[in-house]
Amino acid sequence: MLTAPLSRPSGLSCRQGRKGEVHLQPGLLGSQAQEIQTRWRPSPCFGAGKRSPTKMIHSLFLINCSGDIFLEKHWKSVVSQSVCDYFFEAQEKAADVENVPPVISTPHHYLISIHRDRLFFVSVIQTEVPPLFVIEFLHRVADTFQDYFGECSEAAIKDNVVIVYELLEEMLDNGFPLATESNILKELIKPPTILRSVVNSITGSSNVGDTLPTGQLSNIPWRRAGVKYTNNEAYFDVVEEIDAIIDKSGSTVFAEIQGVIDACIKLSGMPDLSLSFMNPRLLDDVSFHPCIRFKRWESERVLSFIPPDGNFRLISYRVSSQNLVAIPVYVKHSISFKENSSCGRFDITIGPKQNMGKTIEGITVTVHMPKVVLNMNLTPTQGSYTFDPVTKVLTWDVGKITPQKLPSLKGLVNLQSGAPKPEENPSLNIQFKIQQLAISGLKVNRLDMYGEKYKPFKGVKYVTKAGKFQVRT
Amino acid sequence: MLESNKDSAKLDAMKRIVGMIAKGKNASELFPAVVKNVASKNIEIKKLVYVYLVRYAEEQQDLALLSISTFQRALKDPNQLIRASALRVLSSIRVPIIVPIMMLAIKEASADLSPYVRKNAAHAIQKLYSLDPEQKEMLIEVIEKLLKDKSTLVAGSVVMAFEEVCPDRIDLIHKNYRKLCNLLVDVEEWGQVVIIHMLTRYARTQFVSPWKEDDGLEDNEKNFYESDDEQKEKTDHRKKPYTMDPDHRLLIRNTKPLLQSRNAAVVMAVAQLYWHISPKSEVGIISKSLVRLLRSNREVQYIVLQNIATMSIQRKGMFEPYLKSFYVRSTDPTMIKTLKLEILTNLANEANISTLLREFQTYVKSQDKQFAAATIQTIGRCATNISEVTDTCLNGLVCLLSNRDEIVVAESVVVIKKLLQMQPVQHGEIIKHMAKLLDSITVPVARASILWLIGENCERVPKIAPDVLRKMAKSFTSEDDLVKLQILNLGAKLYLTNSKQTKLLTQYILNLGKYDQNYDIRDRTRFIRQLIVPNEKSGALSKYAKKIFLAQKPAPLLESPFKDRDHFQLGTLSHTLNTKATGYLELSNWPEVAPDPSVRNVEVIELAKEWTPAGKAKKENSAKKFYSESEEEDSSDSSSDSESESESANGEQEEEGDSSEDSSEDISSEHRSDSESASEVGDKRTAKKNSKSKGKSYSEDGEKENEKSKTSDSSSTDSSSEEESSSDSESVSESESEPESRKVAKENEKKKTKQDRNPLTKDVSLLDLDDFNPVSTPVALPTPALSPSLIADLEGLNLSTCSSVISVTEEKLIIKSCSDNWVRTPVFVPVKTHVLLHRMSGRGLAAHYFFPRQPCIFGDKMVSVQITLNNTTDQKIENIHIGEKKLPVGMQMHVFNPIESLEPEGSITVSMGIDFCDSTQTASFQLCTKDDCFSVNIQPPVGELLLPVAMSEKDFKKEQGMLTGMNETSTVIMAAPQNFTPSVILQKVVNVANVGVVPSGQDNIHRFAAKTVHSGSLMLVTVELKEGSTAQLIINTERTVIGSVLLRELKPVLSQG
């Protein structure tokens, strides 16, 4: 049986030396000048095997929220885990996970990290590279995990460590992205399902695709070949989000509409689709999935494409900011903290404004209360609320608005006694959803299919949501 | 288990091993057992063994060799994917012994039929290179081969390898440049990023700058025409005035769709490409896409905001329409908030400041105190940048002084201090208020700031200051060191101004300070005591104590922390970190043309050499071919271009000159008609047709230029406004019209037909010159230098009448072949016009003239004069021409072609040349219409009788040394100090006289050089700033008469406020 040898091999003594050096470093880190000095100092260890630095992503570490490195992958020579100490240091300094700088410079490496689903993806870079390149790639990795395992969590990754490794191996070659399209990856490495794992354990077959992917070789690398469905369907979700800042008096400081069209396409063969809008001029700024033919859009304002198989984001767009944005809800609020007393009053009411005759549902109000707030004692007329005394976050799950009886949340706020009253009232973050409505008025005109004979089932769904919707109080 | 016969058991074992690797545990002891399985039939086992191999091969090199034969076999597999993956793993095994095998494999794979295998070969190149740099030469050969590959699959990878192995071998790209541009859209997204970055660097070395020089960038190159290979081949590497190279255009055009990419890295790459290489007027389109990226996740936002911050410093207009997108939300992380704040500050201007200030008020109250403090600083910066709101800001900040939060108050105090220092007028009230605050504030920096302020203004608050000192004396021992130092300062200042009241107090404080624990304070105490307290030993210095302590202090400059970041290429790691990252490749400046032309020649020849063997035989085609090519390219372009133009034309100032360049057909057709009439090969009909609109556009452009030159940062010495003025210099515009021709297909067609009619043997570019000779092209383009070969051509062909001044001087220059001075385009062209004929006296015909300050095309001793004729009657005026000339002896005049008719309300600009014989004598002549004759005269200001000359400081001094004594006139000027800033002086001098700026090593000496138009004698102007708002103006010239006249003219201009 396998036993894990724990001792470090002699070949790595050099690395250990480095580790020692690293422990000396943090003291120096404080001063910029020192750090630069050290950066230019040739590294005795890393200069050993190779002279020229290599580009792109060198190694990847996955770190959970408690600071454990639970996965590492190296595409080139091995970089010691101790390099993450710099990251931890920065994390400590930042206090808040959101404030960890995405790019950290260390004497020999640069660390570029992203924070997703309570995990940090820390990549090690040795030389100049566009940081967005790495960031974008790391997000793509996280997306792929999400896609494969349904969630991008420590547990899921640990359970599927072999698949993760295989995926990473395929996605990067020598630190340069190789296959990042999920269609191709899924051909190479099949996502785990319960059924398959049962079958595998019995038959000994593997979850590595035995057919070799062909998509990678074709002109349309995003679509796998030989797709077959009995029911051919194409669904489009037009999802619009309203980003807004509403000021104290209820007037709109800033509002714009951001939309996406997500597609779920299950069509056999090589369908060539074209999607047209009733009012394409609404779209001010659009970004496309690579499958869309840009020329057609430029000339005719028609989305023409051979779709990838499965779920993907077709376009995302912004509606021109000149158009006035209809704000579907309003909030009446009165939050006050009394001077020199340990309580305050809290009262908010939500009502529908311009909802185009649709019901507004899924309303949630989140408030980051000031630090001096100890507890809140509120009564909602509708829904339920929670207050987390540690993070000071108040969440009120409202649900639907019925115009007859407007939902409100009233009550008292307990403040830390003796502390000065907070200067600013907290701002309210509001979430809501309106089904069957695209707030910008965007409408899909028709979807045509060429290249295949069958008749697909087509469908479009519209949803409007609150994006970054904030009410200042 | 690994020894087991069953695949499932082996697989299970391998999975566990991989699990160990993933956790960072060592599994190298299992190496022999694992390697055996490399030949396994099961694909998954095989893959996992590969994973293991790649990880540990470096440590167990001998054993790793066992596996090599398997890969070698696989490399011959009929399945391309197996070949590819074998190559991948083989090249990932970092064992030096197998380098030759890898090399062989790479070579073979690079010739593989499958593009996928070739792609992997490109990847393998990098791996091999990092393993053994010795192989570089061989690898470059492979790269060269792969670069020729037409597959989109390969392109990204091979460019990556190129960047890694030999980023300096730009010559490898030449032949593949267009192909890469055209393939770009179809390359996978990661490859796009790499290619775009590479092409950006390429463009910066191969094309000339399309920029106006108004942005204060210090690229004062006279750009030369390069890399338009077809041109080069034929016309013996002539250098030409700036035209947008079609290849340059191709790159810009082909990257535009990528702004729509879903990949943030691609968008950013395109954005930086636009920023670094596209004409300024087209950069605007990237802002929309960048703002879109702000919807993305935190990390992307962070990087994008940083880049926007850098951009917004230089070009506010770009992001102004998106101002609100940078409003801060309370949920943003602090780093994002501060970046947004930074951008908002950069974007602040008179128009939006009130909205912004309201927004800032909200931020100040934020719970995030770090952010609130940053906001206060921001307000301070806005206050200094926008003078209109300084008072409002100050008041606002004063209100904040009563804030409960100490950090906020302290920050406000510090900012107020800075603000007051900048304009120490009447702010006694604020100071009093702040003095009161001393009782409550505890933050040392703030206390120190208040004390400093009181000390500095102690004469304005005579009652409070001593009182404050008294209080501070009481608490001296318990103060922070920083505060103690300021108490000492305050004491010293008061002692000097108000010794009666404060003598004892100060002495008390000095005594306290003497025994302080901190040596800084003891030192300071000793120093101050010696300085201010009179005793028998005190030296000469104490007499000046008051001057020392109460001297005027320069105000601090509040500027953006992103100010210095622009020297890094945008979107790079170095830019993000604001330090040079390892392996950062400096983005070269646009090809620079040093004053020494021989260097340029070499460079061109060198480039040509590189090109010649490139087998561009097909480029050596007839003129027709060339035209049709450019037409193809551009007809497709024009539509999209004009679209982007209309977007970006939203009154953004920066765009000016350029927008006219790209925007519309009619403008360029104007140019054409214009030029034709001027160069007397004109087609009168078109001239007539367009005359009306032309006049308008012309005057507009004139205004714009004026505006621009005002805003232009004239401190950037000679380069500052070279470009816009180049618009007027004929030498430049001779062939400058080419970009227009490229842009406008129709135009080309016309031209083509015309060209067909022409039974000329000249080659293409010269045809261009002939057809398009826009005398008054409002298009502002950088000044290129003419290469000697061009001059030879010019001369040989005797192009119209213009043996232009430039070519002559150029020739001289070649003969001398040393860094002699030579004529260049004017630094600045004033748009001041003079009335030639008033409409009342001209019966409805009005005429104005002005000096475009360009070498005259009619004769090299002539001054060019542009006359704008306006018909203010309601009838056509026909046959406008110049009648009898009454010129002083020696003076000559080249008249404009008669104008057949001028429509009512129409206007037309014609140019003529007058040889004034270097005198300010009046040229009188008659301006005739069909019916009338009007006597008019032109008297040139002395400054217009000059042509600017470029020379180095050294040459200037040398020449000046030869022109002393009789040839030197000088005078002393008195003026307020604000008139003696470099930019003001530059502006004033060039306004008066057409001189060139000589780069000066000293701050207080400004030098200008010119030569007279007729005799070509040098005219050297020196403005030397002296102590106490005086300056000496020296003019050295052989033509003493003109010299003294110029002196007389310059003196009042420089001394007036």
TrEMBL record, chain A:
Keywords: Cytoplasmic vesicle, Golgi apparatus, Membrane, Protein transport, Transport. One of its GO terms (biological process) is vesicle-mediated transport. It comes from Zalophus californianus (California sealion). Coiled coil: none annotated. It is found in: Cytoplasmic vesicle membrane; Golgi apparatus. It comes from the Eukaryota. This is AP-3 complex subunit mu-1 isoform X1. The lineage of its organism: Eukaryota, Metazoa, Chordata, Craniata, Vertebrata. The gene is AP3M1. Belongs to the adaptor complexes medium subunit family. InterPro entries: Adaptor_comp_med_subunit, AP2_Mu_C_sf, AP_mu_sigma_su, Clathrin_mu, Clathrin_mu_CS, Longin-like_dom_sf, MHD. The keyword Ribonucleoprotein does not apply. Residues 231-472 form the MHD domain. The keyword Iron-sulfur does not apply. GO terms for cellular component: clathrin adaptor complex; cytoplasmic vesicle membrane; Golgi apparatus.
From TrEMBL, chain B:
Coiled coil: none annotated. InterPro entries: AP3_beta, AP3B1/2_C, AP3B1_Ser, AP3B_C, AP_beta, ARM-like, ARM-type_fold, B-adaptin_app_sub_C. GO terms for biological process: intracellular protein transport; vesicle-mediated transport. Residues 945-1055 form the Beta-adaptin appendage C-terminal subdomain domain. Residues 629-667, 720-738 have a biased composition (Acidic residues). Residues 686-695 have a biased composition (Basic residues). Residues 759-921 form the AP-3 complex subunit beta C-terminal domain. Residues 219-243, 614-759 are annotated as: Disordered. Keywords: Cytoplasmic vesicle, Golgi apparatus, Membrane, Phosphoprotein, Protein transport, Transport. Its main location: membrane. One of its GO terms (cellular component) is clathrin adaptor complex. Residues 219-236, 617-628, 668-685, 697-711, 739-759 have a biased composition (Basic and acidic residues). It is found in: Cytoplasmic vesicle, Clathrin-coated vesicle membrane; Golgi apparatus. Subunit of non-clathrin- and clathrin-associated adaptor protein complex 3 (AP-3) that plays a role in protein sorting in the late-Golgi/trans-Golgi network (TGN) and/or endosomes. The AP complexes mediate both the recruitment of clathrin to membranes and the recognition of sorting signals within the cytosolic tails of transmembrane cargo molecules. AP-3 appears to be involved in the sorting of a subset of transmembrane proteins targeted to lysosomes and lysosome-related organelles. Belongs to the adaptor complexes large subunit family. This is AP-3 complex subunit beta. The gene is AP3B1.
